[in-house]
Amino acid sequence: MLRTQPEDHNKATGSRIGLAMAGGGPLGMIYEIGALRALDEAMEGIDFNNLYVYVGVSAGAVVACPLVNQFTTAHMCRVFIKNDPSEHPFNPQMFLMPAFGEYWKRLKSIPGLFLDSIWQFIRNPFDLGLLESLTSLGQALPAGVFDNEAIHEYIAQIFNVAGRTNDFRKLKQKLYIVAVDLDTGESVVFGSKGYDHVPISKAVQASAALPGLYPPVKIDDRYYVDGALIKTMHASVALSEGVDLLFCLNPLVPFDANLAALTGVSKHTRLMEGGMPVVLSQTFRAIIHSRMQVSMASYDTQYENTDVILFEPNRDDPKMFFTNVFSFSNRLWVCEHAYQTIRSDLLARHRELGEVLGRHGIRLRMDILGDKKRHFSTGLQEDVEAQRAPDILDSQADMAVTAEAIEAVDAILESVESREYSEHFR
Question: Smallest Cα–Cα separation from 176: which of 69, 68, 54?
Answer without folding.
Answer: 54
